[in-house]
Automatic annotation (TrEMBL):
It is an enzyme of class 2 (transferase). Pfam families: NeuB, SAF. It comes from Nonomuraea spiralis. This is Pseudaminic acid synthase. GO terms for molecular function: transferase activity. Residues 292-347 form the AFP-like domain. PANTHER family: N-ACETYLNEURAMINATE SYNTHASE, PSEUDAMINIC ACID SYNTHASE. Keywords: Transferase.
Amino acid sequence: MISIGGRTIGAERPPFVIAEMSGNHNGSLERALAIVDAAAAGGAHALKLQTYRPDTITIDADGPAFRVGDGHELWGGANLYRLFERAHTPWEWHEPIFDRAREHGLLAFSAPFDPTAVELLEKLDAPAYKIASSEIVDLPLIRLAASTGKPLIISTGMATAGEIEAAVTAARQAGCTQLAVLSCTASYPASPAESNLRSLPLLAALTGAEVGVSDHTPGIGAALAAVALGACLIEKHVTLSRADGGVDAAFSLEPPELAALVEESERAWQSLGSPVLGPRESEREGLRFRRSLYVVRDVRAGEAVTRDNVRSIRPAGGLLPDAIDEVVGRRFTRDAMLGTPLTWDLI
């Protein structure tokens, strides 16, 4: 288990739901604060930002290397600098966003993309750090975030097993003692068919860390399925309305969907229970109403047992239904009224 801001996260607790704002503020601090309000109202446990400036994540250059491929569903042909300029959360917004989250009792943290972002987030007393999928190969950044002593969450989109192991090793060697790794398909939006959630137990075994999902698929189905495979953290992008547009709106949850995710993920976790077979305590009453063999009309001593005077009915109390072939043809040892359970001493 790990702990973020006093909240314990692990298999023995309901899933920890992280609402990712990303660029869904659409360049408006007012909208950003409204997203915080909506995340809190929907029951999310944490709000996550991304902390970078366009010039701390790329450079103002052009050419094929600095453009998203033309075939991309959302950002085809976009220049990286212009895209990040549009999507970034201004650094001066961080403090009011963190303050608003704290007013709601909502944990607020971020994904830093360079050392200056870590410096800012340390000043804001961020309770944890997230390493984005594309930064999993930036081991110096991972070591820096880990050296703060804060819990670290690492997304593994696009990463090989070797890259994941290197990132985890770097984090732990730099002092990280509370680590979670998230399965992620780093395409936007992502197809549920590419989620490969059956890899979650493998990811847990490889890293020895708590596991979860950073999910970019539509809806909440993939996230709920992940709970059954061991996910104890769920990160989803959120927006006030997909119809409002925005860089991430197409694969983000609206407030009612976020509320459903929080409620249903806890329900999914509750349903996991224990690896046992047999009646549940809540089924005790139901056991009384299993079928068994009963006398279904008044009979006299010496009368033959037939399929007309003995049948399998509810409730329990008589011989099991499979005994019918053994009892037909035998004779009653005494009178029996309709509704008498058939027992061996009666025939």
